[in-house]
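TICKET: design request
STATUS: open
ATTACHED STRUCTURE:
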């Protein structure tokens, strides 16, 4: 006699189809950092894009805030296995920041105040996939979450969304960043569980 009827799939997972494999939902916003939290006043903050040809495009906080703002609502997924659904941000699309940047580079190395770096393909920063954000849930982004501004690349594990962002260097070759050098995956797709090198 069958104990489980044909077609039984068990209790549906919280988060359903929006939760990548191996992840669990959180309601809070966990804080994970590899070192001390940089405190960057906005009158000293700047963001720069450096091309592979040595050209620099630079924005002060005032210039950055004058750019068109977007309000992405996205799910985020941390490599430590937590996911948070329906997060609300405000910031500037990388498409806007790249508008006047002439480059044929395929790779980007993101730099943060405090020395953190992470690498991404340029194509993962464009076409509505990434933002520099300065507000979360209607409030100024707290320093522990990367304020005054952080990168937001929600389709990759959250370590790719560098906190305290200060610039992007465009490269012809892929250079691993901080966590990638320590054995994390070069790309970090949560749907393919690309947590560590070799995944």
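STATUS: resolved
RESOLUTION: sequence designed for all positions
ATTACHED SEQUENCE:
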């Amino acid at each position: 006699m069958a104990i489980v009827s044909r077609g039984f799939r068990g209790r549906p997972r919280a988060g359903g189809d929006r939760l990548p494999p191996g992840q669990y939902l959180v309601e809070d916003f966990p804080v994970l950092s590899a070192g001390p939290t940089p405190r960057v006043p906005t009158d000293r903050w700047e963001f720069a894009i450096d091309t592979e040809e040595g050209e620099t495009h630079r924005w002060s906080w005032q210039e950055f805030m004058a750019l068109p703002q977007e309000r992405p609502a996205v799910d985020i997924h941390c490599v430590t296995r937590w996911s948070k659904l329906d997060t609300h941000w405000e910031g500037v699309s990388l498409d806007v920041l790249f508008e006047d940047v002439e480059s044929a580079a395929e790779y980007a190395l993101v730099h943060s105040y405090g020395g953190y770096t992470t690498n991404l393909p340029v194509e993962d920063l464009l076409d509505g996939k990434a933002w520099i954000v300065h507000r979360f849930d209607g409030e100024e982004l707290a320093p522990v979450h990367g304020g005054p501004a952080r990168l937001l690349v929600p389709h990759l594990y959250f370590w790719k969304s560098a906190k305290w962002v200060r610039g992007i260097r465009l490269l012809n070759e892929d250079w691993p960043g901080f966590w990638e050098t320590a054995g994390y995956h070069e790309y970090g797709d949560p749907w393919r569980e690309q947590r560590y090198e070799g995944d």
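CLOSING REMARK: The helical segments are 61-65, 94-97, 178-181. Residues 1-12 have pLDDT under 50 and may be disordered.
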